[in-house]
Amino acid sequence: MTGTSSRRDFGSYFGNSEREKAYMSDRSVEDDEMPTEIDFSKGVRGLHHIPAGAKVFLPTSIERSVWEYFSRRAEQKGVGLAELPTDVLKHDIEISEALT
After folding, report:
1. Please, are residues 74 and 88 in contact by the beta-carbon 8 Å criterion?
2. What is the residue range of 89's domain?
3. Number of domains in the chain
């Protein structure tokens, strides 16, 4: 963030051009009208498609005690830290599905 603005500038993060960043920052929050022209010439079909079976990085916040538990259990089992919560969540889904 720069100056006193409370809005974050994600333009550089998402690779927006200077023109796009200027357009986005000049629009008021209440402006919900569609632009008269939208340039899709650089669009990529399926860019955000997640193939079946793909691993998805999902940042999440958990309590320290839960993280410590999973860290210990993953080390004991010799598996990666991301693998153990996934297994626990899959098991929880199976239980939930069986009960409904």
Report:
1. no
2. 64-99
3. 1
